[in-house]
Amino acid sequence: MSIAGVAEQIVPVTLGERSYDIVLHPGLLATVGDRLSALTTSSKIGVVTDRHVASRYLQGTLRSLCKAGYDPTPIILPPGERTKTLGTIAKILDALARHKFERQSLLLALGGGVIGDVTGFAAAIYQRGIPFVQVPTTLVAQVDSSVGGKTGVDHRLGKNLIGAFYQPRAVLIDPLTLRTLPRREWIAGLAEVIKYGIIADEKFFAFLEREIPALLKLEEEPVIQAIKRSCEIKAQVVAADERESDRRRILNYGHTIGHALESLAGYRRLIHGEAVGIGLVQEADLACHMDLCGRDVVERIRSLVQRAGLSEQVSQASFTSLWGAMQHDKKVVGGRVIGVWPVRIGEVVIRPIEQQVCAAWFQSKHGRGSRPSSGRQPGKHPVRRKARA
Question: What is the pTM of this model?
C-alpha cells in the first residue's frame, strides 16, 4: 500500500476545555491552511521554524496559508538545541510585537522539538497567551514533544528548567516530512518510540522488536503504526495527569540520566534521542541493581536499543559530574532525584534514588569517579571534574 493511500488518523487528547486532536495524515502539510479555520479568527499567523526546515517546507506552508486567506509572518531561527534560550524567546516576542500580533493571532511551530518548545513558550507568555499549533517534522517531535503542552527553554545548569504547561490547539503530523530527516535524527527519534513500549505497552515493545528492521528502512505502514501508537500512549498519560504531578512522570523514563548527559555534553555532542537511548539502558540496569527488575528486562531493552542503532554507553563522564547534573534536573523534589524504573516491559514505578545507591551501581558498571561527593556541585566544566578522594 502506498503511503499516500493511508487514511487520516485522529488521536484525541482529552483535557476538558483544553482538549485537542492529533491529526496524522501523509501530505497534510499541503493543506495546513485549510485546517486552521476552526482554530483562529485572526488572519495573522506567525510561522516559527529553523533554517534547515525552512529550506524544505517553509515556502509550501506559506503558500497553503496564503491560499486559505491568512497573512503569514515567517520567523526563522538557527537549528539545534542551543537555540532553546531566553534570548530566542525575546527574538520571537520582538517579531510578534513588531508585526502587531493580537491575542487571537496564532503561532505555528513548523519543525522539531526545539521549535515546538520555544514556539509554545512564546505563545504562552505573549499577551498572557495566544493560540498555537504544532506541526512537527521530526520523529521525536511527532511522537513526543509536540503532544502534552510542555514548553520552555534550557538553562546553562539544566535542560528545560524554564517554561510553562501550555497546550496547543492542534497537533498536525505529516509523516512524509520524515523522508527528509537526517539518518541520525531518525535513529535518535526511535529512542522515544521504544520508551513507550517499556513504560506502558509490552505488545507495542514486541511490535518494535519485530519491526525494527522495517522501521530503520522507513517502511510506510510500520512507521505510521509506530507514530500512532506512541501518540495514543502519550495522549492517555497526559489526559490522566496534565501537569506531571503523578502518572505523567512515567514519560521521564530514560531522561534522568539522558538529560544529565545532554547537559554535560553542552548540548553539542549528543542530540536528545541519543541521550535518551543511553538512559533507557542505563536506568534499566540501575533498576536491576536495585532489585526492581530482572536481568532479562535489561537485556531486552539493551538489545532493542542496539538494534535501533543507538548507543548505550555513558562515555567518559565521572559519577560526580553525572550526579551533579542529575541534581539540576527539574524532576528533583526536595533535593532528591526522582527516577522512573522498569519492573517489567510495559510497567514502571516512580521512586527516588539515593546517591550512595547510584554510586555503587556506577562503580560496578563503569568504575570511574564514583565515590559519593560531600555535596559540592560540579563547576563550570563538570565533565572534567573528578571526585575527591
Answer: 0.88
